[in-house]
Amino acid sequence: MTYLPVFILMVIGLTVGVVILALSSFLGAGISHPRKNMPFECGVPSLDLNEQRFSVRFYGVAILFLLFDIEGVFFFPWAIVYKKFLGVHPWIFWEMVLFMFILGIGYWYLLKKGLLEWE
């Protein structure tokens, strides 16, 4: 019974979302025009067709950047609480050593696969 307000709020939110989507599809102007269906970037029509393909390596490097960037963010909270918890929890240093070792294995794997080499 304590979750009844949460359930009611979820039902109301779902109902409002479905009603708004239904009304926009029924009442919205469904006028189709070739100019309306053209792709544009930043409000300016594209000058070329942009049909060039990106290498898969580009996406791999982008994902790796995000991965290592997010993992690097974990160093800041650890550095802040390191001295505070060193006496209470002496394994805090070795946990970070293990974390850096796992990152090192990942980096070694990337170098071995040649993902960071550009041709």
Would you mind describing this structure in some detail?
- This protein has a domain at 74-119.
- It is 64% helix and 3% strand.
- The protein has 4 helices and 2 strands, in the order αββααα.
- The chain has a two-stranded antiparallel sheet.
- The longest helix has 24 residues, at 4-27.
List key phrases describing it.
2 strands; about 120 residues; flat; two-stranded antiparallel ribbon; 4 helices; mainly alpha
Q: Could you give the order of strands across the largest sheet?
A: 1-2
Q: Total number of β-strand segments?
A: 2
What's the shape?
A: flat
Order of helices and strands: HEEHHH
Question: Biggest β-sheet, characterized?
Answer: 2 strands, antiparallel
Beginning-to-end CA distance, first to last residue: 63 Å
Strand content: under 5%
CA radius of gyration:
26 Å
Structural class: mainly alpha
User: Oligomeric state of the chains?
Assistant: single chain
Task: Estimate the helix proportion, in percent.
Answer: 55-70%
Contiguous runs where pLDDT drops below 50 for at least 5 residues: none
Mean pLDDT, rounded to whole units?
A: 82
Helix run count: 4
Give a summary of the structure in a few sentences:
This protein has 119 residues and is mainly α. It has helices at 4-27, 56-73, 75-86, 92-113, and strands spanning 40-41, 44-45.
Explain the layout of strands and helices.
Elements: H1 4-27, E1 40-41, E2 44-45, H2 56-73, H3 75-86, H4 92-113
Antiparallel strand pairs: 1-2
